[in-house]
Design a protein that fits this description.
mainly alpha, two-stranded antiparallel ribbon, 10 helices
């Protein structure tokens, strides 16, 4: 299944950034992804500054990187370019799921590995199942229902750190809905 983006107005993405934006994207999609990532990351980090201001410099840098990665990925994974890139390679999809251990790192940073591990296991398992749903017509609905179930459970089990809860909820959306669902499937 080779998803194509119209070459008219499309930007060729450097190979090193294919995992983030696909092989091609539009200026509009790139702008939306970057703007939403920067705005949401800034809001989250500014609003929760008191929760993480005591972290060491390298832990702060790690938190900022994870925040930008998660907030950017929620939007990037639904773009035509990124969606097409991952739909064409089963191996790339498995690698994507395998390297997404952000909740485990966040749990370590904020001292709640139990909640973070539960979110990580739920999101990876759900994303794998959604990816393999045979009846493609229900993939989008099943993806959103699973994501909402995960976010709903997270709300009930919430940690005292708003930044941790927010990033875990966005991580669930990123993997279970934005990544696992083929948004361009007919």
């Amino acid at each position: 299944m080779n998803k194509k983006i119209s070459t008219e107005g499309a930007l060729q993405i450097p190979k090193i950034l294919h995992e983030l934006f696909g092989r091609r994207t539009t200026k509009a999609e790139l702008t939306i992804v970057l703007a939403s990532c920067l705005i949401l990351s800034s809001f989250l980090l500014f609003y929760t500054y008191n929760e993480w201001s005591g972290l060491t410099v390298w832990k702060t840098a790690l938190l900022i990187i994870l925040t930008v990665d998660i907030t950017g990925g929620v939007t990037a994974n639904v773009t035509k370019g990124t969606n097409a890139y991952y739909q064409t390679s089963h191996t790339a999809r498995l690698v994507f799921l395998g390297v997404h251990i952000q909740p485990l790192i966040l749990g370590w940073l904020f001292g709640n590995l139990l909640l973070s591990t539960a979110v990580w296991l739920f999101a990876i398992a759900s994303a794998w199942i959604i990816t393999h749903i045979g009846g493609r017509g229900i993939q989008r609905t099943a993806g959103m229902a699973s994501a909402l179930t995960g976010v709903g459970a997270l709300i009930l089990l919430a940690d005292t750190h708003l930044i941790l809860n927010a990033l875990l909820a966005l991580y669930i959306l990123k993997l279970v809905f934005s990544f696992a669902v083929d948004h361009d499937r007919n």
